[in-house]
Amino acid sequence: NNKIGNHSVDPMGSRDNSAFWKSRASAPGTPPTSNDLPKASFEYEKREEVVEDQIFEKCSQSSSRTERFRTLLDSPNVDLEKLRSLSWGGISPEIRAQTWKILLGYLPTNKERREYTIERKRQEYLSFVPQYERARDQYPDGDPNEGAIYHQIHIDVPRTNPSCSLFQNEIVQRSLESILYVWAYRHPASGYVQGINDLATPFFVVFLSEYISEEDIQACRMETISPEDLRKVEADCFWCMTKLLDSIQENYTFAQPGIQRMIFKLQGLTIKIDSALAAHLEAQEAHFIQFAFRWMNCLLMREIPLRLIVRIWDTYLSEAEEFSVFHVYVCAAFLVQWSDTLCKLEFQDLMKFLQHLPTTNWGNKEVEMLLSQAFLYKSLYK
Q1: Are residues 217 and 123 in the same domain?
Q2: Which residues belong to any copy of the Rab-GAP TBC domain (predicted)?
């Protein structure tokens, strides 16, 4: 274990930073800047007298923000920096799918080129689907390499987000199998790795909402979408997931060195932010890799409800190539949030708590606070 020294840094100071939070309320939708930062490090707590619930609701629901999005998206050439800045604070559901596609570079910023580009990419995906269908139909008697890929995906797909009934639907599961198999087949350096199935789900939900209502999604009424439109959803998921994974490919190659670096960075941040928590984890021999590996591998998707992961991804995708760096700071803010409880627990109960964190009843407020806290940690400790 790394030795934890006597750190004098106290980022949990008690100075009142109400002026900072009030300044954020006046400009929702953009990350804090260095000029916004309070002069002293501050504590992650719910300052009820300053950060009212309405602030966070306005972050993603403001009609004026939605109009700003529409103006950007309808322009002949989207200003990508402005779109990223606006997206950081959340994207309205009705324009999320298009915005995500542009942020990821799947759709071009040039408006006139979008229809041709997306049609070409969808057709390209359709040309890959027979690879999946062959492996599925010939399993287990077909090519052993193709069969091994299909077998692992076929096992994992039913385990995907078990708390969400949509992903227990057979039609959805076949779509996920197709997306994941095609991706694995075309990325032999890494192949399919457990956890990638989770990363497809935010894209699937968001892009499915372009074709069927939220009520139909909640009720799993997949018969309301045509097979042709479902293939479009699959294609868009495949290409956007590919864009995302290309930026974190070292997380899924042999020995997963990218994830190991992220865990090491999280441990170092925890020492700086909350040395008492870091010392307690070490004393209990609760190694970061035992609980944080899943946080990095699945981007907290098994810790936070999917409806809120979609909101977090608004911010992640606006961070572009830096999103995996920012994710570590989100994990640091996430871990430190439970510090008081964790420091009272011994190893067995501590690990059980970390594996079943009480986030089921979280809402927008908790997520907005988590993201703002992560941004400030990044500004203070980068």
Answers
A1: yes
A2: 90-320
Q: What is the DSSP letter of 34?
A: G
Q: Are 205 and 123 in the same domain?
A: yes
Co-location of 242 and 145 in the same domain: yes
- The residues with which 110 forms a beta bridge, in sequence order, are 77
**Structure-token pair, residue 114:** 């979008």
Identify the bridge partners of residue 77 per DSSP, sorted by sequence position: 110
Q: Give me the tens of pLDDT residue by residue for the chain, a chain 382 residues long.
A: 433 333 333 333 333 333 443 344 334 445 555 444 433 333 334 444 444 454 455 454 567 889 999 999 999 999 999 999 999 999 999 999 999 999 999 999 999 999 999 999 999 999 999 999 999 999 999 999 999 999 999 999 999 999 899 999 999 999 999 999 999 999 998 889 999 999 999 999 999 999 999 999 999 999 999 999 999 999 999 999 999 999 898 898 888 999 999 999 999 999 999 999 999 999 999 999 999 999 999 999 999 999 999 999 999 999 987 899 999 999 999 999 999 999 999 999 999 999 999 999 999 999 999 999 999 999 999 8
In contact, 131 and 182? CB cutoff 8 Å: yes
User: What is the pTM assigned to this prediction?
Assistant: 0.84
Task: Tell me the three-class secondary structure of 118-176, residue by residue.
Answer: HHHHHHHHHHHHHHHHHHHHHCCCCCHHHHHHHHHHHHHHHHCCCCCHHHHCHHHHHHH
Domain count of the fold of the chain:
2
Residue 103 covered by a domain: no
Tell me, yes or no, whether 209 lies in a domain. Answer: yes
Pairwise CA distance, residues 219 & 210, whole Å? 16
Spatial distance between the Cα atoms of 229 and 219, rounded to a whole number of angstroms: 18
For residue 73, the enclosing domain spans 18-34+44-91+254-381
The values of phi and psi at residue 376, to 5°, are -70, -40
Chain-centre distance for alpha carbon 298: 8
